[in-house]
Predict the 3D structure of the following.
Amino acid sequence: MYEGPVQDLIDELGRLPGVGPKSAQRIAFHLLATEPADIERLQQALQKVKEGVVFCDVCGNVSAETTCRICRDPKRDLALVCVVEEPKDVQAIERTREFKGRYHVLGGALDPLSGVGPDQLRIRQLLNRIGTPTGGVDISEVIIATDPNTEGEATATYLVRMLRDFPGLSVTRLASGLPMGGDLEFADELTLGRALSGRRSM
């Protein structure tokens, strides 16, 4: 639609997740009208993301150092590990302020149709973590917090099979159910069924 660099920028922005053609166009024209100093700061931030961000050696979360701030925190419970698919999932759980253990980021979920098998995920590293005490403390519980979709459920099932041989290890799965403020009439059958099977006494 547009010529030269403007269209190139719109095309590149449109490849970002969640950015449609109209949003890409709005962002491109916003950047076109932005001060050069602001553009330079954006360029530097993008450059630092590629050059300065590393993944934690322990859990696989994004970090500025070889070990992330969560794994360095001495107040964290070493015996408790929550397994998630992506670094963004760590932040989602951290916002609840309910979890006091550590994390393990798989780097995705099993998806054979897309060529993602166990070897493409950080499953071997998880097994090594469980088999090796940290600071003299054995991991006693692994919480599987993969997404409640087909790939996430397949990953959870695979992990349960791999972890059942560890003696004394408790393997749990995040509960699925109804969102706060939701109405029963709008819940799908699968969500409502899981809420019923996961009911608790009061």
Q: What stands out?
A: The mean pLDDT is 89.
